[in-house]
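Subject: Protein cueball

B.,
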Amino acid sequence: MHCARVLALIVLLVGLVHSFSWDIIVGGHKQLQFYQNGTLTHTELIPSAHFIASVTYDAVHYRLLFADYNSPTISISSFDPSTRKIQLLVTRTSNGYYPRVVYDPVTQALYWKDGYSIYSSSLNPASSNKVDRNLLAKLDHYPRDVAVDSCGGYIYWVADEEIGRARLDGSEREVLITSTVYYRLSLTIDQQTEAMYWIEKTHSNDDHWSIESTNFNGKKRKTFYILRNARYAFSLAVSKDFIYWQNYEEEGIWQLPKNGTAIATKLHSMSSSDCTDCQRIAANFKIEEQIQGIKSCNALQGLFPNDSKSESTVSICQNYCFQGECSVSAEGRPTCSCKAGFSGERCDLVNACHDYCLHGGVCSLNEENKRVCQCTAGYDGERCDVFICNEYCLQGNCSVGADGIPKCSCTTGYSGVRCEENACHKYCLNDGVCSLNEEDEPACQCTAGYDGGRCEISSDQDNSCDAGNSGQGTISACHQFCLNNGVCSLNEASEPVCQCTADYEGERCDVPAFVVKWFLYAYRNVPPVALSEAVKSTRASTVV
Ligand SMILES: *[C@@H]1O[C@H](CO)[C@@H](O)[C@H](O)[C@H]1NC(C)=O
Ligand SMILES: *[C@@H]1O[C@H](CO)[C@@H](O)[C@H](O)[C@H]1NC(C)=O
Ligand SMILES: *[C@@H]1O[C@H](CO)[C@@H](O)[C@H](O)[C@H]1NC(C)=O
Ligand SMILES: *[C@@H]1O[C@H](CO)[C@@H](O)[C@H](O)[C@H]1NC(C)=O
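Prediction pasted inline below.
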């Protein structure tokens, strides 16, 4: 044997040791009980369940499927014995009857009866028919149970009045057995013996209950076993070697060798069940065992690769993951690695965060399960959908600095953090006329009587100042008033007014421009005029 394969086998065996072993599972109201050789090996409480009416085993994916009835709702869930995970598959309003669910690994679909109707729901990720409740057939008589023949591709039902079958799409419906009996319950299909079995009570006035069987065409009928002291035997299930059922009167699980060589033995005592239309036993009948020695069952054989060396892992993985890659875990179980945007055990859950935050933003769910984005530098908004440069620079080009703050490169003649200021705007004082020089800097042409780079000097005042006689007030008011190279002048009320350099702002040019820039950034959607007012008032209250 190949080394890797030996290793895989060892890993597989080690993995199996950790999970509890079982040959039948018995469903109860709110629990699943696992038995091996008549010994309870595990009880799984299902807190969400109300009344588990039906259990069945998916021998391809090693999971139990069970139908819970909580009037008026039917829900079908899967239970994985190795991970003990429960997954809700179907929830529907019922017709008011106990549901019965079966699974077909070939079509990968659930089939269930509810009242007089049989429905199907595909669990195949590749199936185009994802309808939750696909009506397959509405029957004339109340079916007490349904079963699937995966090899032949039929669904069968038993009613007191008939046994019938149809293709798994509901077509080719036919009645195979027409006799009406007092009770006809609990149908099970055995591929290995190519027979179906059911429980029958022919007349009302005796206690004659029996397990009946025919082949899949309703032929070769025989009474397989006469149930003595039986009353309401139900939940027929079949495994490689045994047939199991539940007996209301004798309160227990019974077991009979399938080869009919012995009498039935009581495997386990349990309190009586209140639901004879229920099917609460699932047997661990492996697919390999089901098709062992069968000449033609391409459907089930097709689940396994012809290359027996690769074991059954291919079939385990086949169509298991909805949106992802399947691999087999150390425990021999299918495991999905989901595509971006999907999560869940079978990658069937859409990831709420997928593609939510734009431009590289990181998405997470907050305590209220709402999506929240952490944006990369340069982006903002609920989904990082707003580029911070958008409409930021009023007259110029915008770029995002390393600090994540937008920076403007203003077009000629404009200045200010958002290029909101015309360089000439209020540049020349005393009615001086402003224009841009060759270096694109504002230059003033002063009116008569004024001088200075910004026409801030009155020729008269200038002289007076030099003389030091008159204009004393002007000098003292302006003296060291404007900081950081701001130019001082007096307004009409003889108060000092500063014209600051580009790096400073404020009444006395005392506020570095970058502080204002931060402010502008925070209020970047505020129009420039309102903004400068806001800056002034904020500055007055915060920066002194
Ligand atoms: C179950 O019982 C059979 C027959 O008595 C025995 O051979 C087998 O080892 C038992 N299995 C377990 C897991 O106890
Ligand atoms: C019938 O089945 C039982 C249980 O598997 C087995 O012990 C017995 O040997 C079988 N008998 C025959 C005749 O095959
Ligand atoms: C396996 O073999 C059967 C018959 O030998 C063939 O019909 C089938 O297509 C094969 N399956 C695969 C997966 O190769
Ligand atoms: C703005 O960008 C355009 C296109 O790249 C360029 O032609 C123009 O000179 C830029 N203007 C400034 C002020 O940087």
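The chain has eight helices and 44 strands.

T.
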